[in-house]
Structure formats: structure tokens, C-alpha cells
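I hope you will forgive my troubling you with a question about protein structure. I set the record out below, with my sincere thanks for your time.
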Amino acid sequence: MQTRTASDDWFNASLYCRPTMTQRRVRVSTESPSYAVCVVGTEVSVDIYGSIPSGATSFDARGTSGVKVYVVYKPNAVKKPAGASRWTLNSQVEVTVSMDIPSSTVNDSKVRISYYGQKENAPIEGAWLYLTCVNVSLDTDTDRSGMVKSNGINKTKWTWGPDGQGAVLLVNCDRDSPGAKEMDSAYQYVQSYADLEDMSLMILRSQGPSAIFADYKLVLHVSVADVDKVRVFHASGSGSLAQYEHVLGSDKRSYVVDRSSGQEEDTFYVEGLAFPDADFSGLVSFHVTLLEVSDKNAPDTPVFTDTVVFRVAPWIMTPNTLQPLEVFVCSIERGSNPNGDFLEAMRALDEMEFGYVEAPHKMFPVVFDSPRDRGLRDFAFRRILGPDFGYVTRVPSHGHVSNLDSFGNLDVSPPVTVQGKTYPLGRILIGSSLPRSGGWRMTKAIRDFLYAQKVQPPVELYSDWLSVGHVDEFLSFVPAPDRKGFRLLLASTDACYKLFKEKQREGYGNAAQFAGLENVQTITIDEMLADKTLRSDSQYVQSCIDWNRHTLKEELGLTEQDIIDIPQLFVLNGSRADAFFPDMVNMIVLGKHLGIPKPFGPIVDGRCCLEENVRSLLEPLGLVCIFINDFFSYHTLLGEIHCGTNVLRKPFSFKWWNMML
């Protein structure tokens, strides 16, 4: 263990707290003065053993006003002097110095090392160290307050939680300039002043005598691993867009900051170019290094480095329980092919998912575009990307995609707590195949992206028993005023058979499914209950849903009281299932209003018994059930209302960086 004490200052004898970083080691000599630059907040280690005069056995160290001198020693090896400030010359004793205020002129502070013999009271010889103090600080919004404070603490690590530290960076994936063809991040220059608002501030502060920077230079740099993940612009002129010079990122790893003008503050704007992914944690470090310029062919000598860390903001999905802001609905033009055009428009919306990105200074929605384009490849890019509305996509390296890569197969739960662990932004739900079953699976590029966002850890469900293979065909979430604030709705063939048997006992066995639909064959309750194939198909489907029910209860911390079974029948088409009548869980949720596919169920006492059953389950929660006829427009095309609509929702009030991960 080392102990330290403060030597008497020539003008002020005080005990000082030791700074946290040792900057460099400087050797002093009795033959000629030594010179060093000291950076505020760091120490200079003084090598006093380089030229000890003959006969010297002890020393003392003193500094001029503003210089803090420390003696560091090991108590088990060295005895602290009593009264006098002379220390035994011992390799277990060292001297360090620091300063808190930048110098006014070069070499305006000094330290004297005095060497003493065995019996002499006067020093044998002395060594001088002349110091110039500078302040070099690279600062960002480390405390996530929305403001950049000078000389922030804990800058080199990024930590989660309400008391966490570390700045946030947005991927500049919107298109603020109307005339631009690409996202803002595609351009190596600033497109507009609105473009700057999406970027994070980074400020370099450098104080000290201007003359010192003739022999020293400041270099801003980024690692090879991070250089393609970010771009940095230096604000260096009158305020026109041309003044924002691209200085780091893309192919630029370092930038020498011109300090000749005496400017003490340089402003940089930082934009993200990549979201977190399998090969990118989302963490990016920037460094500024003070280099002593070599007057020979030797490389420049690093004196001090300051580092800041950003985390790229994740893409965040929004659940049904959040307030709707805007609804996107597919449509077709008059005179076009109704089935073909509507199907393509419906699929276009099914291949997008709305989310958002957020930093303390800015938030905007971002549409995630599925690689399963199916004829409308550029819809999200052309029609949705714009000012403060971003875009992201993922393309698999092998080029193959399946039904599971459409975003009806992507959902997110409301916030949940599971065995004491809180997920304040919910958990993403994706459909997949059973382990080792060899069935469909969402492409690795999408799965890697979703897992890498971290803040909504995905849950994989079993969905490739369905012809389309989407989780929205058997589950949905609706808001509720009690318990966890929501209910999970699950399609249930058992609930449907229970309802139909009840109506049969009440004498309504002849009531027919699909009554009132043109060119659609009806089937009575008696006939459905007697149909062994339909019964067998439904039993298989129920077993698949039950598997997911168990997974959802375990992964989302749900109980049976949190789940509502919605009556639904399915039929097998080959080895996979389709909804027998419009799939009621495939609904659109707009606050308390639910747009539910109209099931055209058996009419009992003048009302559809399926609709009445669903109303009895959901209306006590304060929800309004609106049944919409989508039979020919959606259902017969293997989709429902949720597939042909998409909802932009209000973001969470909870800040993702406050999560405890």
C-alpha cells in the first residue's frame, strides 16, 4: 500500500487530494532545468533519481504558488520524517505534482528538488522543473441532461440507469432536406440546419498560453473499429453550412485541431451512421490527445488523452397500449385491379414497423422496413422517410427471405416485470419455428438487429404452424384499467367450441356461419360441431397456441387473469393453418377503440354470437369494439385488418438509458 503526503508549498502549506490520473514521467537534473506541460486534473511524476549528487541521502520538494507537490511512499518500507520535510532517498519514495489552473505564460510555475547530505543542513545541490499548465477537456452531454457541461466526470465509461453516465448518439437516418434523395447520413456534408439538430454536441476546451501550442498539438481521433459508425463535423466559421467541415468518420480517423488562433473552445457535431447490431455494440469512443511535437524524425510524444463515450440510441418499438398518433391504411385507385393492387398495398404496410429513436436533445419516429419487399420495395423509403422521420432496414447476406420476415410477425408487449426484473419498454415478440424443427425462421439479419437493441429483449414464439406464419394471427394486446395495465388476447379454438356448444344446447344449432356473404357457402353450428376434420384441425392449432401461451406467461410474467381467450377456428391447408373465419385477434388498437375483423358468425337473437361474446369479454375493460367487414378485402387474401394497417404511436415516457442492464 502506498501513502501520500503533501509537501509545503512556498506560499501555502496545505494537504491536497490526489488527482486520479498520472499524466507522464519527467526526469529532473541538477545540471540543467527540466520543462514539462501539466494538464489540469492529472499529475506529473517527477523522476528525482536521474542525477543524484554525490553524498546525497535525503531530499525535499517545494513548488511555487498553484503547484501541488506530493510525496508518495510505502509505509512498510519508508519511515515518514518527523517534523522536517526531508525524505530519505529511497526507490519506494516518489514525487508527483499537479496544478488546477491553466498558466498565463509559458513556464510560469516551478518545482525545486533540494538534495541533502548525511549531516548538512543546507542543500548540496538542487534541480529545477519548470511547468506550464494547460486545460484540455473533451466534453459531451455525459449526464444526459440535454446540455454539455465542462470537465464532466466518468466520461470514459457508459453506464445504464438513472444515475448512469455517458452520452447518447442518434443515427441520422431521416431526410431533413426536401430535395435530397438519400438519408442525411449518406452525405459527407451538412444538408441543412435542421440536420444539425439530429446530431449530438461534442466540445473541445483547451486553455493555456497560446505559445505552448507551437510545440504541442491537439489531435481528435477515433478507433479503426468505430470509424465507419460515426461522422463528425467541426463548426469553424461564420455560421454558414459550408463552415461545418467533415473531420472524422467514414475514411477519416484523426484530425489536428488548429489552436494557433488562441480559440479556447471548438464545437463538433456528431452523427451516428449505424444502429447497434451483431457486430456493433453501439458504443463509440472519441479521444483528444495532446502531443509534444518532435523536432527530430522521431514520432510525436503523447502527453495526455481525454476520452468520451457515446452509445448509439436503439430503435424502439411501441406497443398497442400507447396512444395512437397517425394511422396508415392501404388503398387502391379506381380502375385498377382491386385484388392485385390491394394485396400489394396491404403487404407494403405489413412489411413496415414503426418505432422511434431518442436522445436527451431529440426524438423522432423511425420506420423499420422489412427485406421482404414483394413488389413495393421503395414504399417506406419514398413515402415515409422525410424530415424528422427516419428509416432503417436490414438485408440478409444470402438474399433469401420468408413469410416470417414480414412484420405482422413482429410485435412488442407493454411494460412487464418478470421474477423481479423490470422491462419498462416491454419485450419484442417474433414468430419462429420450434427448436430444431427445421421450419421457417426470421432471417438472421433481422433477428440480430432486434437482439442488438438490448432495451426490448426479444421472445421467440412458435408461429410457423400458420400458413402466413405471423404472431399477429394468434395474439394481440389491449389496454386495461387494472392489474398490469393491459390484457393479452389469444385466439382460442377451445373457446370457440365452448361457445358453439353452448348455443347448440340453447337450440341455435341451425344458426349459420357466413350468413349474408355473397358466394360464400354457409355452415351451421351443428355442422361445424359434427365436422371431424375441422375438430381435428382445431385441436392441433390449440396445442400450438397453448405452447405459446406457456412461453408468454413465463417470459412476460403473466398469469391466467392477464389473458383473455378470443373464440376462433382454424383449418389446415396442407401442413399449415389458416383462419376459418376472419381472425378477430388480428385487430387494430386505437386507444380504447378496437377495429376488429367482422367474423360473420351465427346469428342468435338477431346478433352475431361471436361478436357478442367478444364484447362481453372486452367492454368491461372500458374498450369499444367496432367490427369491420374485411372479408373480401383482407381475409380472403390471407390477411386481416392489422395486416393492412399500421399505427404510429406516441413514444414511451420512460427514457431507455435509465434501464438497469
